[in-house]
Amino acid sequence: MALTPWVARTARAIGMVDRPDGDLKNHGEPVAYLGGLAVFVAFLVGFAPFYQLDRQVLAILLGGTLIVLLGLLDDLGNLRPATKLLGQTLAVLIVIKAGVAIKIVFLPPIVSYPLSFLWLIGMTNAFNIIDIMDGLSSGIGTIAATFLCIVALSSGQVGVAHMTLALMGALLGFLRYNRQPASIYLGDAGSLFIGFVLGALGMVGIYARNNPVAVLAPVLILGVPIFDTLFVMTIRWMRGLNPLRGSPDHFALRLRKWRLSVSQTVNLSCGLAILLGMAALVMVFGSQRAAVIMLLAVSVAMILSALWLKKIDMNL
Fold it and tell me: Which residues, in sequence order, are bridge partners of residue 184?
């Protein structure tokens, strides 16, 4: 809350603003970038001085710092996609080298490490993809961090819980200025950082204490950005477009086109994130039967939602 106004003033003073283009950017006037810098510094202040920095924690902090720097460079000069992917790959390899990876008993390392790489690259970019509306990415990030914190506390993972609490606090302070009408945006530095940290923390949680199906709980906790990423890429592929290029195919933009306001769309998205988080807790703390039923119910609901969203004509 203290850093964000200062960062916003600095961004406007140096011309680091997001200007409307009449296409995908329809806000009324230029809005300051660099909000991710405030989130990053607040996260470090809320966490690093108060917890023992072991190897894995340092790796997440180092990788996250690299992601923030990469995002800042992109905010300043629009890096080429290949350059961004190369930088993200290096950050992901740093945390995997420190042992931060998906650990499933029946998966050998030859499968676990590539899966971990794809998960973390995907989550890093997923939060960047949904950062298209005031308060959406930061709000979803706050909710996801909350549920990851609950799981971590229940399994005695104090370090993971502490990191999620620090991220929650940083995002809540930032949300005061990022919700509609936003006076500052996360920028790539912020959205990429949120996705990277949440993706890494999602891999180190302990989920399958009661049943093996619960290992999929982080997919539900982070279900909103995962859904939007898969939905957008599928729609663009079906339309013969490059999946990596921007287009108005996001679920949030389709809800806006349907009949909802920005605030209603963001509130609905956050509500869905809470429901998915609660479903994940049922999987973690419930029986295997309950976990399977919940997973099937969520899967069917997401498929039906995607089919309905696809019918919304974005050309009207």
Answer: 32
Domain that holds residue 75: 3-310
Q: Summarize pLDDT for 3-47 with one digit per residue, the tens.
A: 999 999 998 888 888 776 555 555 567 888 889 999 999 999 988
Residue-wise pLDDT tens digits, 70-90: 999 988 877 888 899 999 999
Alpha-carbon distance of 149 to 160, in angstroms, equals: 7
| pTM higher than the cut 0.90 | yes
pLDDT at res. 244: 64
Beta bridge partners of residue 31, listed in sequence order? 18
Is residue 111 in some structural domain? Answer: yes
pLDDT tens column, 144-170: 999 999 999 999 988 889 999 999 999
Q: Which residue has the tokens 């979803």?
A: 140
| Residues 142 and 169: beta-carbon distance below 8 Å | no
Label residue 145 exposed, middle or buried (CB < 10 Å: 0-12, 13-18, 19+): buried
Location of structure tokens 């000069």: 77
Q: Which helix (H) or strand (E) holds 48?
A: none
Identity at 186, one-letter amino acid code = L
Q: CB within 8 A of 269, min separation 6: which ones?
A: 136, 139, 140, 224, 251, 252
Helices and strands counted in the chain (H then E): 13, 2
Number of structural domains (the chain) is 1
Residue 23 lies in a domain: yes
